[in-house]
Design goal:
Strand order of the largest sheet: 1-3-2
Radius of gyration: 20 Å
Distance between the termini: 83 Å
Number of strands: 3
Helix content: 25-40%
Order of helices and strands: EHHEEH
Oligomer: single chain
């Protein structure tokens, strides 16, 4: 019987602690942005919410989706150039 603090058995089922979370690098790749852009957004508190685990930064996928939807709704509507004038 394993005791507290023992190494996990490699045959055991992998943990799913980070299911639903994405790393900063992976989010940057998915959005086509640089890691520096996400870092800058975090500093300015304008990007999607994130959490830190030591030096690692993670984003909850659902929170990123909500943030993207907010950006869509907040985007100003522009008139198309070349339209008819009355």
């Amino acid at each position: 019987m394993p005791h507290l603090g023992s190494m996990p058995d490699p045959k055991d089922k992998p943990r799913t602690l980070l299911v639903g979370w994405i790393s900063r690098l992976d989010l940057a790749l998915e959005l086509g942005l640089s890691v520096d852009t996400l870092r800058r957004w975090e500093a300015m508190r304008t990007g999607p919410p994130c959490v830190r685990a030591g030096r690692k930064v993670y984003y909850r996928r659902a929170a990123v989706e909500e943030w993207l939807e907010e950006q869509e709704q907040a985007a100003p509507r522009r008139r198309r150039a070349g339209g008819r004038r009355s």
